[in-house]
Amino acid sequence: MYEMRLRAYAKVNLGLDVLRRREDGYHEVKMVMQTVGIYDNLCLKRVRSPGIRVATNLFYLPENENNLVYQAAKLLMDEFGLPGGIFIDLQKRIPVAAGMAGGSSDAAAVLYGMNQMYRLRLPKRELMKRGVRLGADVPYCIMRGTALAEGIGEELTPLPPAPDCHVLIAKPPISVSTKFVYENLKLDEMLAHPQIDLVVKGIRDQDLPGMASHMGNVLESVTIPHYPVIAQIKEEMVRGGALQAMMSGSGPTVFGLFEDEGLAKQACQKILDGGLAKQVYVTEMFNVRS
Fold it and tell me: Is the pLDDT of residue 103 over 90?
């Protein structure tokens, strides 16, 4: 197999709680991860000349060792002494630096694809062990679907598929530093935390309203005061009929869950017309694991 085409799917957090800051500087989290139907396209090609070459459709993305797809390829090439080289063409659709694990999903796709192309026969668990070296979200992006994530995000428990619904995603034209958000999170001042166990119960019961009613993201306490547009997008989605709307990850992407596709599309248009976001999509939960 000398060429492989792959889709790298985005994720949202159906709930995100931070439990404590560890001595090593990482934060212990408890969150529900969910794959959604927005994806990047990757094409992997084996070539004779040694080395790793990356091309992307976005001029501002690195095409060297600073890109996670490069790092993922290098990890397997170095470990297994793979012959020749590899060319990776990455076509981005997932919003960049948006709290949707786009880079992690791209790296996961490269690990999965190279495992197939070079017939390494690594089981999924082995790929996930390697993926965590690249980032805490990479093991989940290899697993995909619906999962409870604990530890720093790498301790994963598969869950039943989340209840079907339409997902409106809006990324405002701002950049948010994940490091800034976590450094400014004041856990000792927080009076309320999202009820992650009840989100999980809603998923197990296939109770969409019940699941939605307990969703929450503690990182909004940092991000929204600095970027009020996130709150404006949330309000527009709820006004438009969303069962729940919240920020994904450390932001700035906001997503809303809708039972009615028509209402989701109307809310999408209002967000566009209001200039709150330019990258706006209506999609669905993506619950197939590979």
Answer: yes
Helices 124-131 & 68-80 angle (0-180, nearest 10): 120
Q: Which two tokens stand for residue 28?
A: 């212990």
Q: HEC states along 217-283?
A: ECCHHHHHHHCCHHHHHHHHHHHCCCCEEEECCCCCCEEEEECCHHHHHHHHHHHHHCCCCCEEEEE
Residue 100 contacts residue 167 (beta carbons within 8 Å): no
Where does the pLDDT of residue 290 fall: very low under 50, low under 70, confident under 90, or very high at 90 and above? very low
Q: Is 60:50 a contact under the CB 8 Å cutoff?
A: no
183: alpha, beta or left? (left if phi > 0; alpha if psi -120 to 50)? alpha
Record the tokens describing residue 108, joined without a space. Answer: 């996961």
pTM of the model: 0.94
Specify burial of residue 195 (Cβ count, 10 A radius: 0-12, 13-18, 19+).
middle
Q: One of 11, 30, 171, 234 is an active-site residue; which one?
A: 11
Asked if 74 is an active-site residue, the reply is no
11 counts as catalytic: yes
- Biggest CA pair distance of the chain: 59
Run of H or E residues at 100:
none
Q: Which amino acid is residue 123, in one-letter code? A: P
What is the rounded CA–CA span in Å between residue 258 and residue 210? 13
Choosing from 17, 137, 171, 234, which is the catalytic residue? 137
Band the pLDDT of 193: cuts 50, 70, 90: confident
Average pLDDT over residues 248-254: 93
Q: d(Cα 106, Cα 67) in Å, to the nearest integer?
A: 10
In the chain, the percentage of residues whose pLDDT exceeds 90 is: 84
Pull the structure tokens for residue 275. Answer: 């200039």
What is the rounded CA–CA span in Å between residue 16 and residue 221?
A: 12
Helix axes 229-239, 261-273, angle to 10 degrees: 140
